[in-house]
């Protein structure tokens, strides 16, 4: 029935900070940027390689994301990486704090977490 995930939508608290984070620090490319006057909202379409991945929104007065203890619903975003240590080094070079690397007890794969500017958990998963 489904072919693939089309995109992930994220509502940020500060559009310029989140745009800089996803584009300049994480390396996503901009496919389209639209300001919707009627909503007082930006919509930024971001790609990873040539795949549309993230839709970044800025909505005025959006409530904060529930966190710790974790709330029901989407838990985190996860991205595949070839070498977790090299990826962490690049992220930390961009001022992004990454949690210690852990090993998945089921798959024996390495993984680690960091947060976006609004605290959305993002996972690195070594493939």
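^ structure tokens above, recovered residues below v
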């Amino acid at each position: 029935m489904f072919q693939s995930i089309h995109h992930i939508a994220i509502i940020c608290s500060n559009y310029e900070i989140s745009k800089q984070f996803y584009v300049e620090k994480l390396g996503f490319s901009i496919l389209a940027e639209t300001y919707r006057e009627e909503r007082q909202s930006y919509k930024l379409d971001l790609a990873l390689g040539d795949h549309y991945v993230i839709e970044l929104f800025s909505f005025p007065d959006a409530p904060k994301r529930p966190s710790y203890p974790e709330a029901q619903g989407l838990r985190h975003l996860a991205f595949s990486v070839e070498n977790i240590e090299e990826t962490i080094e690049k992220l930390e070079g961009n001022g992004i704090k990454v949690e210690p690397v852990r090993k998945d007890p089921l798959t024996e794969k390495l993984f680690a977490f960091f947060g976006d500017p609004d605290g959305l958990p993002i996972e690195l998963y070594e493939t």
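Residues 81 and 126 are 5 Å apart (CA to CA).
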